[in-house]
Automatic annotation (TrEMBL):
Residues 1-20 form the signal peptide. The keyword Signal applies. SUPFAM superfamilies: Calcium-dependent phosphotriesterase, NHL repeat. Keywords: Signal. It comes from the Bacteria. The lineage of its organism: Bacteria, Pseudomonadati, Bacteroidota, Flavobacteriia, Flavobacteriales. This is PorZ N-terminal beta-propeller domain-containing protein. InterPro entries: PorZ_N, WD40/YVTN_repeat-like_dom_sf. Gene3D superfamilies: 2.60.40.4070, YVTN repeat-like/Quinoprotein amine dehydrogenase. Residues 49-194 form the PorZ N-terminal beta-propeller domain. Pfam families: PorZ_N_b_propeller.
Amino acid sequence: MKKFSIISLGILASLQLVNAQTISSKKWSDLFSYNNVIAMKEDNGKIVAAAENGLFYYTISTGEITKLSKANGLHEIKITAFDYNPQTKVGLIGYQNGSLDVVTPDGVTYVVDIPIATGYNGSKKINHISITGDKAVVSVGYGVSIFDLKKKEFNDSAFFLTAGVYQASNEAVLFGNKVYSVTNTGLKTHEMNTTFPVFTTWVTEMPGNFTHIDSESVLTFSSPTTSYIYNNGISTPIGQTFTNVHDVVVNTNNIIVTDKARIYSFNTNGTAGTVSSFGEECNTATTVGGRVYGGTILSGIKNETNNTFKPDGPYLNYAYKLSLYDNNQILVSSGGREARFNTAINNPKNPGFYYFNGMEWIYSSYFVGSTTSFNVLDAVLDPASPDDVFFTNYTLTTGRGLYKMKYNPSSKDFDFVKYYQLSPNLVFYRPVGFVSDDQNNLFASIAYTGDVNAGGQATGIASYDRATDGFIIKSTSSSSGAAQKPLYYENMLWIPTPRLNNLLVYDYKKTPSITDDVDYKLDSGDGLPSNAGGSLSIAIDKSGDAWIGTDSGLRILSNAATAIKEANPKAEPIVIEQNGLGEELFRDLQILQIETDAGDHKWVSIDGGGVYYLSADGQQTIKHFTKENSPLPTNSITDIKVDRKTGKVYFASYDGIVVYQGDVADVTSGFGNVLVYPNPVVYSNFKGKVTIKGLAEKTNIRITDVAGNVVHSAVARGGYYEWDLNNMRGTRVASGIYFVLMTNEDGSDKATAKIAVVN
């Protein structure tokens, strides 16, 4: 049986960082895809594989799989190159942005100071890494650099500059005392000596367009169609013409050439051996114990009997919106929009949606190889029939509209049920997002409905009619055209409109008839920022206040369900004190998403600014997560969802999904399972605040010493509290045992806890 655990190759005893801070903790986990294997290396019956957003380690004899990502040790995503030395147990990871992670048995070191040639303005992407002993040859867009794995620093660099133009090293290796680099103009070489950095002293051994190279017992390189064995200045072609070489790998006894879906094995003299087919394209391949393993683009590691090995995860990393359900079910839409939320993102991989059934990730075969263009902005379970999935397809091509599919648990697949074409016109009636009400009625927001001859600029609602299994389109009075995913609250649909400075609220009167429907608008005259181009997000908290995110700031509409129907509703900014002056919270910032947790705290995603965790009233920033200080894959999080039962917070982005274990879960007027951590608090190991979770919605707290003296008191709201271990005089308490005495708001429930402090 295949075992799975989140253990990072046994290397996370400590983290050593260069120009970076520790960004991972036990509170984080990833939901990355590990299907696209970029590189593999064998280590005594184990395969270390690099995927797009992390490494995984597959032990062939036991089936155990462990993984290492930004959630538990790495510092970046978008891996583009990787190599590993099984003798020293040291690996080197290269990223799209040009940074490196050095992975050793003692920890992970982040390297950001890759040498860049003066005047070079091209890509910093790490094209390839090859380790020989304690040296690594790093190929980039300007040439090659030598990296010292012991000192964790760069040595010499050779900038491939000719007539003012930089030439990329596609791949390079150190063989003997000479570096061999394959480029688009030939195989280039230079000995490791004092003139190594001078490109004019490099020798072109063989002209041509070469893409891959590797060495161990012999040196092999290739063009897209031919592979060569290089020996004493002579390049001998291997007797096989290839279609499109994706990689060459040299092991002790053989040469493995990956040619799309077919893997060719040769001995080190070039004599042909086995040919394996994996039924899909592979990036790379290797042999272990005489057996061939392919690193596929879409299925992780595959063996010759088509068994796959990888950490479970979604099909691809693209994520836009999330839907959470009971029994840990998750639906992920993979689409997106640009140009003021107007134009569909063209994703050539056509991913559709991903589904987690509570135990494993499922991907529908319906999307595999489909000729229909899919840009799925939202996918939801039908609240009246949870085996059915509805999704929106927002494109400007044939196939745009709404879809229904049914989950088949026996085949672990989705069967196509019906396509709902909203309009034959390929410009108007663009479906965006779904929402359901408390009676299981299903609605979708539709962009660009209304009279086509008048420009079709109305925002519309598509109401699902179960009797006819069809959708009834209702145009509103809003002329914004565009729409966001709706929110249901107090029998109304609340719809941000990203291309016009207003917020649409649609009152459907809880009836299927459209004759009595009413819609309301909140605009700049009602307090939305005057410089906003549209509203993007909305959340409504326990007080009934609407938190409205626009592309130029945040507004709060108090008592929203009543206020929106008034003649002059008024949305207000949150003003916080900064350096003794009042300042508007998130002024002029684009707010992509707002979500509340069980304690009424607010999670706010800022485009390019990461995610803020705010107190219930927004006056205090409790946490601020960014790509730089946390496992967030990007600073533009497209969706946030909170599982209020567990406290887990899910962050979706175009670069993948990560999960944060929050401290607030299932908050009620009484106490839950009160937990204090860390406990004991040993100053030499921990210098932060002590967290007390499982509290009531409002909790009166008194902390006393063993003699009964009160050293600290507070009122906690939202289900948890953090104590800085200071007494009422503002100084740290002495070592000892402290008692936490707690009552809820009306005194009907009580709880106690103990904290041990060691200074």
